[in-house]
User: What shape does this take?
Amino acid sequence: MKYQHVHIVGAGLAGLSAAMDLAAAGIAVTVHDSSPAAGGRCRSYFDPQLGVRLDNGNHLLLSGNRAAYAFLDRVGARGTMGGPGAPVFPFMDIATGERWTVRPNAGRLPWWLFSRRRRVPGARLREFLPVLALSRGGPDATVAGTLRPGELYRRLLEPLAVAALNTPPETASAALLGAVMNESLALGGDACIPAYPKEGLSESFIDPAIAWLQARDATILLGSRVARLDQSGGRVTAIDAQPVGADEAVVLATPATVAATLLPGLEAPDQFEAILNVHYRCDADPGEAGFTGLVGGTAEWVFVKPGIVSVTISAGNRWINAAPADLAARVWSDVAAVLRLPQPMPPWRVIKEKRATFAATPAQDRRRPAGKTHLTNLVLAGDWTRTGLPATIEGAIRSGCTAASILTQ
Ligand SMILES: Cc1cc2nc3c(=O)[nH]c(=O)nc-3n(C[C@H](O)[C@H](O)[C@H](O)COP(=O)(O)OP(=O)(O)OC[C@H]3O[C@@H](n4cnc5c(N)ncnc54)[C@H](O)[C@@H]3O)c2cc1C
Assistant: This one.
């Protein structure tokens, strides 16, 4: 085998998936993460203000996310995921109070578009056709420039695009949305079953992965920030002055901004979009799916778990400077309407992830590097590398698998 030992810098999903593939190939791994807890942008923590454990943000998986499910299966955590168990997407229009549930049918032929009980009210079939053109519009095409305005767009495609790309549709890459659609809606309802952790992101993805790695003698170093990589002769020769031997390699799986400082000259995404989550300490009826999409409100997706209601606002740069109390009050009026909850507002918490994802624009997509680098023993991983997908769990996990396969070839 080419490498006996690999250092993985970053214990987010990309780093963990690389570590798991390498460990499965019989290679010794050491995982370094600067944070005291693993998981990066996909983690749970105890929030002292609300007195509950929270996720850093609501995360939704689709059954078409095959790498994510392979990851969960490997660590024995598929059963920790919950959800409706069927392709069910309830929505409410805040302006009109109208409610509907989108239910894509199984199979590739989208006959749900013709069914009143399954489709978006007011939608016309011809609005769906441009969805098929998303991947064919060329690298500079935007979502808003490709899709046709109408009720299907406003009430389904736009909310899905903002959720998947975390970027305003006017600037978001049509090709990246097309890649998501090709692995979900275009395959039919079987690939669109939504799921989220029953308990928390860490309990589903992170803790089982760490346990799996430790059972294979991996070394996990938390609170261990890597500040310097030395290079010489076309390879990495030291991590923070600790020599990297000839039979050792490095997977750099930090966020893009950190990778760019550790590897001067690296071209990587340099524009980001925020995601805001507003959590309320209250009970509510989770409904059929456990979440509802809102159209025309401030809140976009409202998730209900026992004792906690959590709201996501994507493409959140426009709200980043809003006063948390104002935002919580504004979002609460949407939440109270959709969940039919009485005022006044319960205890709340606003979490702003400023650099939640790279801005999924055509220009930023072009800045994404491949996993393989000019250094023979260093590969990149992360949702910001050239995965062909937007910054998602699926993309992050696939990037880790790619990094591992480069090193084991
Ligand atoms: C609020 C929010 C909601 C989201 N919702 C969804 C969703 O619904 N569905 C979906 O699929 N995706 C969603 N995502 C995206 C998903 O969380 C990310 O794509 C994924 O977690 C990125 O994983 P990663 O390993 O690439 O990066 P990260 O998770 O950022 O991991 C990088 C790791 O590197 C560590 N690190 C940084 N600097 C150093 C250093 N110098 N030395 C050592 N370690 C270092 C960090 O501590 C971190 O643990 C969401 C993201 C956010 C923030």
Summary: Residues 9-15, 32-35, 40-42, 56-57, 59-60, 225-226, 253-255, 258, 275, 277, 353, 356-357, 382-383, 391-394, 396 surround flavin-adenine dinucleotide (CB under 6 Å). The chain has a mean pLDDT of 96. The two ends are 9 Å apart (CA to CA). The first strand starts at residue 5 and ends at 9.
